[in-house]
Amino acid sequence: MTSxxxxxxxxxxxxxxxxxxxxxxxxxxxxxxxLEDPEGSTxxxxxxxxxxxxxxxxxxxxxxxxxxxxPFVRLVGASVLKPSSMPAGMDxxxxxxxxxxxxxxxxxxxxxxNTWSDGELKVTMVVSAxxxxxxxxxxxxxxxxxxxxxxxxxxxxxxxxxxxxxxxxSPRAVGRTGLGGRPLS
Length: 185
Description:
The protein has five helices and five strands.
């Protein structure tokens, strides 16, 4: 089977995505190491460890790299509402959307995190963590299934039952639902 003709940049993005998939699988098998290679590592394991150490990561506040004491929130998707830009497919303006959701408009905007409650109900967290959400989008656009750490209580404006859309789906949600048309490999 031949590969589609890709631009140089798209080719590099695809190689980066596949390298990240290799790293994720090695981590799930329990042998990935960002530190010195463990004694007894095979040549393949040493190569995958070197690959994982070389992969670039787009870091942002709330990515979990520094906040070790806060659990992650598993997101199915998210969106950002701002006075200057609204998600594609949302027909209302910023002030109207804020009124419908039940929050006061703010110049920085709001992030909507679609997740599940402890009882597995679909819920939307309306949070002030707009920059964190934009960092998630940057990673998701590269196929990295990252989740943010739990927001601080002061960052949560409200939690609504059900998912508020339209939303950008996380790569994990795309893979599980088949929305991408093919499994992530």
